[in-house]
Amino acid sequence: MGIPLKYNLRNLVVRKVSTAMTVLGIALVVTVFLLVMSLAEGVTRTFATSVSSLNVVILRVGAGSDVNSFVSKDQHDAISTLEGLARGDDGQQLESPEQVVLINIPKRDGKRTNVIVRGVEPVAFKIRGDSVRIVEGRMFQTGTAEAIVSTRARDRFPELRLGGTAKAGSERWTIVGIFDAAGSPYDSEVWADLHNVQEQAHRTGGFSTVVARATDTAARDRLIAAIKGDQRIKLDALPESDYFDKQTVTAAPIKILAYFVAIIMAVGASFGAMNTMYAQVSARTREIATMRALGFSRMVILVSFVLESVVLGFLGGLAGAAIAFVAVHLFLTAPTGTNNFASFSEILFNFQLTPALIVSGVVFSLAMGLFGGLFPAARAARLKIINALREA
Amino acid sequence: MKYFRFIWKNVFRKKSRAFLTMASIVLVLVLIVVLSSLLEALDYDTGRTKGAANVVVQHATGLGNFMPLAYRQKIEQVPGVVAVAPQIWFGGIYVDERPQNFFGQLSTDPQVWAIVHDDYSIPDDQLIDRFHWTIGQRIQVRGTYIPGTIDLVLRGVYTGPDESNIFFHNKYLENSFLGRLERTGIFYLRTEAPEKVPGVCDAINKMFENSDAPVKAMPEKQFMLQFTEMMGDVKLLFRSIALTVLFTVVLIVANTMAMSARERVTQIAVIRALGFRRSQVLMLVLSEAIVLALLGGVAGALGSFPFMWGLIGIIKHTPVAMFAYNLKISLATLLTAFTAAVGIGVLAGFVPAIRSSRISIVDGLRRVA
Fold first, then answer.
1. Same domain for A20 and A122?
2. In chain B, which residues have their Cβ closer than 8 Å to the Cβ of A102?
3. Residue A244 domain-assigned?
4. In chain B, which residue's Cα lies nearest the Cα of A235?
5. Cα separation of A372 and B24, whole Å?
6. Residues A37 and A146 in one domain
């Protein structure tokens, strides 16, 4: 087995140019696949980063997101009497009424999109634990038109810089701080004082949603049942993780695109590899016949040629993964966004090139090499020694 | 032309290679046609001529906010405005939340709506085909941000540039659960002529500048573009994919051409010895690449149709289902794909062609392949 293998691998080096071209072709396919998949991964991961498994999001029945929802003051009062609510260090119940408003503001490229402004009371930060914390500037003051924005939003919207003003219609918020929400969907938002948001948006009749923290999982499930069943409330409630999980469908179109593009391009690239291998087999007919004459079996020749092609694919996969890695870590570091269909606002996320994705990219390239090498290798193995030696 | 047979023979000298190369070109063209069709669908150009005279007014904060319905009388006073139709996006759920059951439900004032949308006519509608509805059918839609369920009876169907919505009377919303209607999502208005549009927009924006609910008036096309702009960086993504794909296939085809040229050194030396000039050899090899690319181009253009139908089927099950109904392969897209094919041929054939033309007769004839 040693000799044919060495022979095949050395051949990759001998025909440098055509090896390089084939490898580059496969590499680009892997790069495109990895980049699009890491985009989808970014969306999925953002929605999967929930803050606490004990948090419950309370919405109007039928509302897909807090943007569409309404909770009246009476309903909120009733919720605060329910059992199972956790308490903070100061004894305050951990339930947070929140008002959500969409503002339409320009991105860096001048195009506009919707951003969520979330009006909250200080308790909202306690419910999110340490996952929403100020990294620059300071917290907004209660009762003022001040706001804090996520780092991702600051990087994407020129108006949302420290000291800038978020303005839409008659609404104005001065940005006094930048927060980090640990990669959760809150990282796409602007947070401001609850009463100020209600006042500026002329929505003083109630809230969009109430987010509550339960004492433990059992209490959480009882709390959810109570909110759904209580005659005074009759609202929909679900764990925060489920709430965000439902919104991951946003990544579905990107994933479909990734697979569609990847499969078509992969077949194209394996055809390219196949071409190269066929050309190699016919150029090396005599050499193959010589090896057969020396006693190497058909099987050994077959395996050895398939391996040559698989190595070709493997090199392409490594190169593609390397290109994607460099691209993600050097050029695609800025947050990117797409429309969150549930909330009609932009969800911000970063490209996530995970080790699992890299492995899948390399496996993918091995498959291309295998598929591209199988038929030419079979032809090589089937060569008749006498005819082949006589040729040319 | 007299060399065509020669070129043709050389293209198919190795049948499996010619087939594989063409197949790669076909696949890439399919991809390019599909991607550009998606881009076109995103760009939303209904080709409406009358729509150019339409203006849409929304709350300046964003679409999620409502404006007082009383603005209507004021907007009607703006010179150049012909008709103003209020419109509310009900945003309800039909049957269940699956994307393929998604369609728009708009509440409006039918008399005025008909003036603004006089390029719509009754009947026939894609929703009818989608859900197999019949006249008299009851359609129940569960509200999301507007509470309650609307229970409608299908009375008529329409045709028009956008057939993905159903319409019902503002009075119905009012009578059933909203109480007296005081607010609206948008105003859809028709101006006298497209030239009036910028002036009307400015006048309306100024009129409510300092009120509690300032508005943003804009041409219909710009209003529609908002939704695709919200898709974020998807467009850039499509473009970069298309470019990378093109580059990859140029590599693959160039590699094939180089291989084929390398194997034919003797042949080329022979025809040079017969008196063919270097430039003729260059043209011959280049033409081979172009013929190959063109064959792939035609097959790819034809082959993209079934792919497109398949993709539309898949998209219908995603949240972007509404785009599926705008998706079609336009003539412009086919032309682009075809140009791309020729470009692939020229780019990929160039280096091998130059190399072949430089072969010296003596070396070529001496070489044993």
1. no
2. 61-65
3. no
4. B147
5. 12
6. no
Residues B63-107: tens digit of each pLDDT: 777 888 888 888 888 888 888 888 888 877 777 777 667 777 888
Q: Tokens 């509200």 appear where?
A: B143
- Enter the DSSP assignment of B122: S
> Cβ–Cβ of B254/A261 closer than 8 Å?
no
Tell me: the pLDDT tens digits for B52-63? 788 888 888 777
Q: Does B245 touch chain A (CB under 8 A)?
A: yes
Question: A227 and A370: one domain?
Answer: no
What residues have CB less than 8 Å from B208, skipping those under 6 apart? Answer: B71, B74, B214, B215
Q: Which pLDDT score, from 0 to 100, does residue B118 have?
A: 65
Here the tokens at position B192 are 């006298």
Out of A21, A29, A260, the one facing B311 most closely (by C-beta) is: A260
What is the rounded CA–CA span in Å between residue B170 and residue B109? 6
Q: For residue A78, give its domain range.
A: 61-234
Q: How far apart are CA A232 and CA A234, in angstroms?
A: 6
**Number of structural domains, chain A?**
2
Cβ within 8 Å, pair A114-B63: yes
Q: Which of B63, B144, B251 sits opposite A25 (nearest CB)?
A: B251
Same domain, A212 and A351: no
B299 touches chain A (CB under 8 A): no
pLDDT digits (tens, 9 = 90+) for B260-297: 888 888 888 888 889 889 899 898 888 988 998 899 98
Residue A106 tokens read as 């320009």
d(CA A285, CA A275): 15
Q: How far apart are CA A172 and CA A166, in angstroms?
A: 6
ipTM of the complex: 0.72
The DSSP H or E segment spanning A158 is: none
- d(Cα A196, Cα A144) in Å, to the nearest integer? 6
Does residue A134 sit in the same domain as residue A279? no
Whole-structure pTM value: 0.80
Compute the nearest-CA separation of A164 from chain B (Å): 17
